[in-house]
From TrEMBL:
Coiled-coil spans in chain: none
Keyword tags: Ligase
Residues in the signal sequence: none
Protein EC: 6.5.1.1
Stated name of the protein: Non-homologous end-joining DNA ligase
Residues covered by the DNA ligase D polymerase domain: 30-288
Name of the coding gene: ligD
Gene3D superfamilies according to UniProt: DNA primase, PRIM domain
Species annotation: Lentzea rhizosphaerae
InterPro entries to which the protein is assigned, alphabetical: LigD_pol_dom (IPR014145), MtLigD_Pol-like (IPR033649), NHEJ_LigD (IPR052171)
GO molecular function: DNA ligase (ATP) activity
Length: 290
């Protein structure tokens, strides 16, 4: 593969660089393969990014190198990349506003992949055409295992969360984080999503104290699963479905069925790489939100 290429993506012209640069050294996965993955997964990924300001996690020197979060759209971007300037209260950099990238077309996704934006993170709310923040449309429970707990224990907690939501008449679905844990999602109920998620987490921690914890303190998490209800704070983001993760292998935050959750007995049962996710989508379509 040539290290550079000029391509036309749905009418947009992009110059791709360093295509043979290995971004996942332990797996030999190159930037060209990252771009290929995001291109091929775009049909199911783009709908989950639509109207959501994207926070980028960039790894210009690969997953073993220095990385950085990027909220503001890079200044040297193509003129056709759509951005949205939004208020950013409590910004760690003291910015009152952030000019976010809005990923609503394949060309933008390819451009970001060329920047080694391996991970894409989004909030649980969308923006309107004039930049108005809408109320949250999604509810998320981020399940984070404290060693020696793993995604296997997360699956047991996910089942508990699902039961509570089902009792409340709320359908839920799950995805792996692509890292250690997983997330359970639902369409936002009428009540305050953050407060509702907190109530569910605290209830389960009380009912299952040997398995579940609902507090931030890391010391309390050993061998348990932390239900991070705070991900519903409008200022926070969660890794998008189908996003790559910056692990040793090019793992993906992968939507899974409840049968897969229930059947999970070892970590590898719910670890999926880019190639495996493409095969899953080819055979089963988009499982996220279904």
């Amino acid at each position: 593969m040539s290290s550079e290429a000029t391509v036309r993506v749905e009418g947009r012209v992009l110059k791709l660089t360093n295509l043979d640069k290995v971004l996942y050294p332990g797996f030999g996965f190159t930037k060209g393969e990252v771009i290929d993955y995001y291109t091929r997964i775009s049909g199911v990924l783009l709908p989950h990014l639509k109207d959501r300001p994207v926070t980028l996690k960039r790894y210009p020197n690969g997953v073993d190198g220095k990385w950085f979060f990027e909220k503001n759209a890079p200044e040297h971007r193509p003129e056709w990349v759509r951005t949205m300037r939004l208020e950013s209260p409590g910004s760690s950099k003291g910015n009152e506003t952030v000019n976010y990238v809005m990923v609503d077309e394949l060309a933008t996704l390819v451009w970001l992949a060329n920047l080694a934006a391996l991970e894409l993170h989004v909030p649980q709310w969308t923006v309107g055409p004039r930049g108005g923040k809408r109320d949250p449309d999604l509810l998320v429970f981020d399940l984070d295992p404290g060693a020696p707990a793993t995604v296997v224990e997360c699956c047991r907690v996910a089942e508990l969360v699902r039961t509570v939501l089902d009792d409340d008449g709320v359908d839920a679905w799950a995805k792996t984080s692509g890292n250690k844990g997983m997330q359970v999602y639902a369409y936002a109920p009428a009540k305050d999503t953050s407060e509702y998620a907190k109530e569910v987490a605290q209830r389960l921690a009380k009912e299952h104290p040997k398995l579940v914890v609902a507090t931030m303190a890391k010391a309390a998490r050993t061998g348990k699963v932390f239900i991070d209800w705070s991900q519903n704070n409008p200022a926070k983001t969660t890794v998008a479905p189908y996003s790559l993760r910056a692990r040793e292998r090019p793992t993906v935050s992968t939507p899974v069925t409840w049968d897969e959750v229930e059947d999970c007995e070892v970590v590898e049962d719910l670890v999926f790489t880019a190639d495996e996710v493409l095969e899953r989508v080819d055979s089963a379509g988009d499982l996220f939100g279904s």
